[in-house]
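Quick look at the format.
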Amino acid sequence: MLTWIREKFGTFIISTIIGLIAVVFIFFGVFSPKSTRGLHDGAVAGKVNGDSISLSEFNRAFNQRLELFKSMGGDVKFSEEQIKAFRIREGVFQGLVRRKLLIQEARRQGLLPSDEEVRDRIREIPAFQKDGKFDLVSYQQALEANQYTPNSFERLVRDDLAVQRWEDYFKSRVHVSDEEVRQQFLMNGNKRNIKYVVLSADAGRRGVAVSPKEIENYLKDPAKLNLAKSYFESRKETDFKGRSFEVAKDEVVRSLLSTSKLDEIRVANERMADKIVPLLGAGKANDAKINAMLKASKVEVKTSGWISESNPSIPGMGAGDSKDLLGEVFQKKSTLDPSEGGKAKKYVYGPRVIVAVVIDSQKPDMGKLETERSTVIRQVASRKEREIFESWIKQLSDKAKVEPNEAVVGSEAST
């Protein structure tokens, strides 16, 4: 629970009563035999400096991560293919590794909580109380129902308290100056709305030529034929719905071959981008025309909505895809803002090409600084805490010996 809160909201943004965290650890993601992937009960998910991450610990965290994604995405159920694509097992394992490192360092420095602290915290957990007081029967029944012994649960609470101590420690090291507050406020209030088109490698491959002879030679190779069949199976309910492999095989191979021609994909996307640049503007007059041009590629004109200089994330773009773009979006006189003499521009990232233009701007209102000061202070403090923590945990990670169990975590964890 602590791990995914950090990844979603930042390492130190949320201060949660540790007893509540412990309850969530128990009552969400109870160990499921379906998640063992055929391993025996004594198997581990991996080791960190010789300390084991148990299979049950991994599965609880894994189930929690899936529950989080479901709650964010409308109760979506992830297929095994999606789990691999999103590298969910890797993320879960790495989170548990970091947690284990925190606990090991607390032990090394003599910072583990005492038995009395663990006892007091357990007695504070509402799920174990009756009429406002700790109830031993309720405690024992809850542990038994969730496959915990008193010792294993107390160890969990002790570990949570140790992690909390590190969070408190890093919070205590942060000071926020008035100038930092002012700069953060300016960045929060400096906003842009961007109109853009993302021409992905998948979109560009439709403009790449593949000859019948190339398809024929591809299908003659047994290994490549099997690859084509696997590709078809993964998309038979979407791209190739209602068709057999024999009917769709030429299209399957054309897709595979065109995807491998990255230079040609880039050229095709740049060619299309050059047509879009003079049409993409702040108004909507040409949007329908651009969408018609892109219909076969299943791409359309999008808008980002308001994004701030402090949180400049554009839907559908990774950080690497938007760094140059965002640098120009938020420069003092933007070359992408028509109101300042700018215009749409293309950005090339390998085979992926993006066209963007600023359609609206908003400047910070200094009159609101005092009203928002406390919120901005928390924002700056959280960022600084995270930076200090990440630097420190990286040093621990670089020295650590981490041994993932590939049968549990998957090959993606070691890449």
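Next, a different chain entirely:
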Amino acid sequence: MEAGKGEPVATTGRLADIVRRASPRKGYSRIDPATRTFQAIRIWVNRELDGLDAFLARAVRRLAPGGRMAVITFHSLEDRIVKHTFRALQAAGEIGLTVRTKRPVVPSEAEIERNPRARSAKLRAVEVAG
């Protein structure tokens, strides 16, 4: 790749250009190919996924009998952690937790039309036996 042979990648614009050139085009996409790269960097720098599973477990254990908790995720890494944590807590059986969303609730086409940012949202919910 030519990017490694030239000047250092010192700006976000340069990085975005490199990613766009390196990404194969498979037709039209509303999302810029560099978006995932910047998302991955942001997640790593901010340590956004560290401790998510532990937080969910603590939060669920604080629910009163009959209490419910819903979590909205915006990318697959988050969603996977939420899904697996909820399922593991249910399987452990210690607090009588039931996963209320076998599959995530996703926005309708109408909602996405009104709010394009909702396109990647997924909602998962649990309930403590009451």
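The chain has a mean pLDDT of 90.

See the schema section for token definitions.
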